[in-house]
Design goal:
- The chain starts with a helix and ends in a 6-residue tail after the last helix.
- About 80% of the residues lie in helices and about 0% in strands.
- With about 350 residues, the protein is an all-alpha fold.
- The chain has one domain.
- The chain is built from 18 helices and no strands.
- Helix 2 crosses helix 6 and helix 15 packs antiparallel against helix 18.
Length: about 350
């Protein structure tokens, strides 16, 4: 090890030591806020995350373990083969659309463990199968927060279209050889037992990330951090808290749901083999949020915009000014940017 590398290692060690000391000091200064935030995170996990996600985690693991993905792939796989993915990825894509954030990633991780996807295929599929599901968009955000199932349906439709566009844009330049089936599928009963165990283990990791994110937000509130900063941190770190902070803006709400939050990203990391999660994943999440925000703003009818206005006290003019032509123009710009990024970002 040369001197330059040794110095860099020492600097990193000192930096992370200071970060840990600072975090410990913050927890000692606001212990009640930290405890309240952790309890809130556990409440979100028990009331929102587990009921909405656990069934789809079990379903996804069972479909991949029992071989049902292969049978569905024979029916639905032709469009995905065109974008360089095997037919088995079709059911994973559907699980991501219906099940929500971690469910699609869990199915991708399972196929990677079974050696049914190469790392590059897994990265491309992951870019298009991580989005807010209808359960969260319609039930939690639409009905629970905005008192409107229609708005929740628009939010979910925007994410479904955005994730599909991203999957199409990251089509490989050359056809990649599909990995062969390494092991035979499990019997349905054995696959179900394995699916329940894997889903339960995954939920423990997810719950931990949600609790950590809520703890951070609670401590920031107790420390008197400005509301604008707390809102930004909430949108970046935890999707439920972030959504509650930006309910008055259709675009920001769509972006927050599309980005998903670092808490969701951490949950996904626990479900994937090493090397699958890359910087391209975070680029895709940012672009997904931007596209979903534009589509939400574009598709939101004037009658629904009054709901957002009532929450914020603002006039509807800034939100209602998005015309169809303006929406198309912005989408064209996004498409152009995505095409240019294909050469720079490794999926």
């Amino acid at each position: 090890m040369n001197v330059k590398v040794m110095r860099l290692t020492k600097v990193k060690t000192i930096w992370w030591t200071l970060v840990l000391l600072g975090a410990g000091t913050v927890l000692l200064m606001w212990p009640e806020a930290a405890a309240t935030g952790a309890r809130r995170g556990l409440g979100i996990a028990s009331q929102v995350l587990i009921p909405a996600i656990f069934p789809f985690l079990v379903l996804g693991n069972w479909m991949t373990g029992s071989g049902l993905c292969d049978k569905l792939g024979e029916i639905l796989g032709k469009p995905l083969r065109w974008v360089g993915l095997p037919g088995v990825a079709a059911s994973v894509w559907l699980i991501g659309l219906v099940g929500g954030y971690p469910a699609g990633a869990a199915a991708v991780g399972k196929l990677c463990q079974m050696e049914r996807l190469t790392p590059s295929q897994a990265r491309r599929l992951l870019a298009g199968c991580v989005n807010a599901g209808p359960g969260f968009c319609v039930a939690t955000v639409g009905v629970g927060m905005l008192k409107s199932a229609k708005i929740g349906g628009i939010l979910w439709a925007a994410h479904a279209v955005a994730s599909t566009l991203i999957l199409l844009f990251y089509r490989p330049k050359e056809t990649e050889a599909m990995p062969p089936t390494v092991s035979p599928p499990l019997r349905p009963s054995a696959a179900m037992v394995e699916a329940v165990g894997s889903a339960s283990k995954a939920l423990l990791g997810m719950t931990g990330f949600v609790a950590l994110a809520c703890l951070l937000l609670s401590v920031m509130s107790a420390a008197g951090v400005p509301p604008a900063v707390r809102t930004l941190v909430a949108c970046v770190t935890e999707v439920t808290s972030g959504s509650m902070e930006v309910l008055s803006s259709p675009f920001l709400l769509g972006w927050t749901l599309g980005w998903g939050g670092l808490s969701v990203h951490g949950q996904i990391a626990t479900l994937l083999p090493s090397g699958v999660l890359s910087k391209g994943f975070f680029v895709a999440r940012f672009v997904h949020g931007y596209l979903a925000g534009l589509l939400t703003l574009w598709w939101m009818p004037p009658s629904a915009l009054s709901t957002f206005v009532a929450l914020s006290g603002l006039t509807a003019e800034p939100f209602a000014s998005a015309s169809a032509l303006g929406g198309v123009s912005m989408l064209v710009l996004c498409v152009t940017w995505l095409v240019s990024m294909r050469k720079k970002v490794d999926f």
